[in-house]
Amino acid sequence: MSSGVAIADDCKNVFEEIKKNKSHRYCVFFIKDEKFITVEKMGGRDASYDDFLTDLQSGGEGECRYGLYDFEYEHQCQGTTESSKKQKLFLMSWCPDSAKIKKKMLYASSFETLKKSLVGVHKFIQATDASEASASEVEKQLRSTDRV
Fold this sequence. Notes:
Radius of gyration: 15 Å
Oligomer: single chain
Strand order of the largest sheet: 1-3-2-4-5-6
């Protein structure tokens, strides 16, 4: 189901900057005037996951957002003693339980449109509270796609 919400060009441009050039750690998107998805905030490469969560939730109580994050973690393959750094892009839909139904519906139906336009994202995560958006939960979901 499509909501008719369009993707602004700046979303795709920032996505490419994060994916290819690694020029930002994350980006937060929002739906403007119920018409198009656009960039709200970006975080530099030195930004932390906590910075990302703060910006993701900065709209206030009951506000939904989308967040794209370039997540790094250590991974050790089975049978080896060395660990390697892994980087995975994930796209999060943040819709807290306190958001109005109409807003939740708009963000849920527009998530598919955004997912299709951002080719190369490893994982799509839906979060409704802080525990689902926590770094440990996200890392667990990203690790579930690793080969052992």
